[in-house]
Write a structure and sequence with these properties.
One of its GO terms (molecular function) is DNA-binding transcription factor activity. By secondary structure, the protein is mostly helical. The chain has helices at 11-18, 22-30, 48-62, 67-77, 81-96, and strands at 9-10, 37-38, 44-46. Helix content is 56%, strand content 7%. The protein is globular, with a radius of gyration of 13 Å.
């Protein structure tokens, strides 16, 4: 895993870096546009890749895109098996708080 993909940034810092409110960031997670990891205590952790993705999502929303349109576009990108694998791992982690879960084992 590259340093850019390590999930080490808390939601408050992500909010400061992106200019998005914590509520906006949580909304994007609820809409399944972003998949932070969760610590045992439930704290969300993001990577620098997530920060870039959040900025892209926010720009698209500002341009009038709907969240379901963004999600469909992301799904098309995930035809690549490696990217799909990474997204599924992120979803499992977000849903169950499973850090670094590898579903292919």
């Amino acid at each position: 895993m590259s340093l850019k993909d390590r999930k080490v940034i808390n939601i408050g810092t992500v909010s400061e870096l992106t200019g998005l409110s914590i509520r906006q960031i949580r909304y994007y997670e609820e809409r399944q546009l972003i998949f932070p990891e969760r610590t045992k205590g439930g704290t969300r952790k993001y990577s620098f890749s997530d920060v870039e993705k959040l900025m892209d999502i926010a720009n698209k929303m500002e341009d009038g895109w709907q969240s379901h349109e963004i999600r469909k576009m992301e799904e098309k990108k995930l035809k690549d098996p490696k990217l799909r694998h990474k997204m599924i791992e992120g979803q499992l982690n977000a849903a169950f708080g499973m850090k670094n879960y590898n579903y292919s084992k």
